[in-house]
Design goal:
alpha/beta; two-stranded antiparallel sheet; 10 helices; binds xanthosine-5'-monophosphate
Length: 248
Amino acid sequence: MEQTAKQRQSNIILALDFPFENPENRNSLFKKAEQVLNASHPYLWAVKFNHHLVLPLGVFDGIQKLVKQVHDRGLLAIMDCKANDIGATNEAIAEYYYAAGFDAIIANPFIGWEEGLKPIFNVAHKQQRGVILLTYMSHKGAYEGYGQTIIDAETGKQTPQYVSFAKKALKYDADGVVVGATYPEKISEIHGILGDKVPIFSPGIGAQGGEIAAALEAGARYLIVGRAIVQAEDPAAVAKEIRDLARL
Ligand code: XMP
């Protein structure tokens, strides 16, 4: 991931998300995705997919073709599936997304290690793919889960949930953590724990109110941007503008 971002001189990940469309129109959805990708790819190093496209297009029909197009342009593909189930199910989720070509998937650390995250990391390590863990989400209600004060199961000490998750990301040798750009103070605190060992991926720029400079100054390494680019009249121009503002 680091090499690709450096080569491409960009720290921008496009979230290729579109609003709901009648499933009968999924061909036009596929074409729209291709158009945005074609226009914006020079300014990106990765593309993140989510349910917005996976549900209507299907993993092995539409998505795999788009992942190939992403790879053909020299970019990486990340699946934001937020894997969050028991081990056997997570294993299947990871296997299918990696089989479709994804370089990394996002998982939720609330499920714990044994029979939770461990099977995902096992599959990822076998295939030399990545696992990125949520640590503090970008939406308003994030404080109800990620922001709670907990008694850490390992240390028995009071600690914010996200601090415990950040320490676990280090321990598990995760390939990245996701911290919302809408909470620069959380990025800063989590960066203090992770240093340069685990990069921070930060969504929430633009449509959710997060700011590029604040997120980067706080320690975010990569910015995830969706609607601000996808729904722009000129996605290429906006992607370039954001890339230039966030230049490595
Ligand atoms: P927008 O349009 O708001 O899209 O730029 C953001 C994209 O990122 C996803 N998202 C998150 N993914 N942890 C994640 O793993 C988060 O905290 C988070 N916040 C937003 C969102 O679903 C969309 O794809």
